[in-house]
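Following up on my earlier message about iron/sulfur cluster. Here are the inputs again, as you asked, copied directly from the submission form:
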Amino acid sequence: MALAKDNWVDKRVLRNARKKKAKLVFDRFEEQQPQCTFGMAPRGDVCCKNCYQGPCRIIPGKQEKGICGAGADTIVARNLVRHTAAGAAQHTDHAREAVLLLHDIAKGKVKGYKIKDEAKLRAFAKKLGKKSSGPIRKVAEAVALEALEDFRRQEGMFQKSEGEYLNWLRITALPERIKTWKKLGILPINADMETSHALHQTAMGVDADPVNLLMETLRLGLVDGYAGLHLATDMQDIIFGTPKLTQSMSNLGVIKPDYVNIAVHGHMPIMSEKVVEWAGKLKAQAKKVGAKGVNLVGVCCTGNEILMRHGIPLAGHEMQSEMVIATGAVEAMVVDVQCIYPSVQDVASCFHTKIITTMDYARIPGAIHIPLKLENADKAAKEIIMTGIRNFRNRQRKSVCIPNKKTEAWAGFSAEMILAALSKVDKKDPLKPLIDNIVNGNILGIAAVVGCRNPKLRGERFGEKLIETLIKNNVLVVVTGCMAHTAAQNGLMNPNGAKMAGKGLRAVLTAIGKANGLPGPIPPVLHMGSCVDNSRIETVLNAVASKLNVPIHKLPVAASAPEYQQEKAVSIGVWALTLGIATHINPIPPVTGSQLVTKVLTEDLEKITGGKVLVATTPEAAAKAMIGHIKKKRKGLGLK
Ligand code: BF8
Ligand code: SF4
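Thanks, got it. Here's what our run produced:
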């Protein structure tokens, strides 16, 4: 099996799982072969399941239309709308919960949470045209109500080009972008209405026009970007604090043999922040059961969130979640929503690990359910930690297998942190050193490598090879999501990784490091957070674009989701396209059955938003395409 080449798959842990008869993602992947190829490249056939006359399959030259008469272009575009809507719905639900928390804090309804970044809150009030001075709770209420408006505004829904649009888009996106989107008639009005409307529009017998459907896809990309990513990040920074530089460790070796190990998996800081707080408070309880303390470790995006704000180590990305349990040394894995394999309970049942679900709408049969609600968050978090502590005695020493694998990881590069680091080089004009080094070619360009790992690409080391090639070619790389775990585990998120960078990039990293009092360079790959924190990337790009007075699509930047698997990665990718960013996605998305949709995404869109999809199925080809695009943009700006 190609697994041997995946350096994040620990062979000993794998054997440990096998000994206990625990099936992992790779085993189920094999069982699923051969997977259905309908909708998938390169075969290019198309499948529709949108009504019960179907499923219908479109086979070119043989079966050109579904039973209702929908052809390949319509079906492919409809499927893309639905995936984008599903991804956006996950992010907007996440953001909504954070907005409601801010509102409850403002109204004094919850005691367990506070506002940590008051300056940020006041800055948002100002941007929204609200009173930014005075009692903080009043300001918080005004900001929360403006955010909630993005979930309830109704005016303009059926005359979209005339209506009002998302507050969060209005205060975040650059005027040039808003003008472009307004011209296209894709400004979203209300996040919930747009995602629900998308289900209507794509039902059997509603919209059959593929171009109109693609416009709807773009609108949903904007919903994702502003009412999802930005809104979630901003609310979380206000409540839990804006991340600053922190140094920690990554990979399975962060699990400690003598401690009560509790893995936190999912996405919402509303849960993870409380768990972090109570892990600190209950150290003495852990000692009572013979452990040295409580060791929290992070999995997937929640891992990134608690790494950035508290320096908690990263145990693994989503595909390693089962391996975290198969170390036999994890007393509890607490989860909330998104990207949690239901199989974690199956693996846990082969060991002593307790799986704890916390959200009423995300439960796993067999797991313990401790609902963590705003009003009982402290009680629930305490019970979660105590469940882990009580379970320490059940650990079977013979079943413990913790690999000796961990790598130093620096994190917390919020836009504010990046500017603070750059201001040490040029206090008056922090962006100048970045821009000067792009102009002189020390930095060829900037690439965001984000998103998931995909079991279809096991053994290919796609994400890590792509990042390594980019930095070798002097491209500054920023990472989020599971790709941040990948970069960390491969030593790219610490100063030593700078050895792998090209000469020009290394010189810049070293100059910034020295200006900040470090003995050497900063890491060549900057950790910007979880998947919702892709918003932070736009914040930096907007600052650069504004300073240069050019639109984002003229900047030497590119993005890649090299191993995407989740609908959320689709909606983030679509948002990047609306921003005008050339975006590589792999595996090839299921659009090749429609020549029209494929052509719009890979060619025509560039004339509309400036963004386009880059197709490449090897890391080398992906790096080449991204670097080629960056060079083209440099030329456009008159740079060598
Ligand atoms: O939101 S990168 S597998 S964990 S979807 Fe999920 Fe993909 Fe990981 Fe976070 Ni993002
Ligand atoms: Fe078939 Fe049309 Fe129904 Fe799709 S919507 S399953 S193409 S009949």
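One observation from looking it over: The radius of gyration is 24 Å. Hope that helps, and feel free to reply on this thread.
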